[in-house]
Write a structure and sequence with these properties.
Elements lengths: L8 H14 L7 H15 L6 H9 L4 H24 L6 H8 L2
Helix pairs in contact: 2-3, 2-4
Length: 103
């Protein structure tokens, strides 16, 4: 079962649904919101990233290593998704995943 620090198990489904529908309306810490804003911008319009975007991460306490990691992980997911899309790879359904993992 997925656990999120500081979130009661009963509230987890609500948090996940909120993040999936519009993360900006989810009740998450400001640092998480800044991270997600940066990752979304880096994914959707990487050429528009400016110093102020990195500054917003620094203002939330992220150091150079953390900003590097956020950027690399975001870029990696974009890279893998582009390859999968280019090759026509289809996602497994949740049912298939549950069946194959026994969960």
């Amino acid at each position: 079962m997925l656990e999120v620090k500081g979130v009661a198990a009963a509230d987890l489904d609500t948090l996940l649904a909120s993040l999936a529908s519009d993360y900006r309306k989810a009740e998450i810490p400001a640092a998480d919101l800044a991270l997600l804003d940066y990752a979304v911008k880096l994914t959707r319009s990487p050429g528009d990233i400016i110093d102020a975007d990195v500054g917003s991460l620094r203002a939330q306490g992220f150091d150079d290593r953390a900003i590097h990691d956020i950027s690399v992980i975001t870029a990696y997911y974009a890279f893998v998704n582009r390859i999968a899309d280019g090759l026509g790879v289809e996602l497994e359904s949740r049912h298939d995943l549950e069946f194959n993992t026994g969960r």
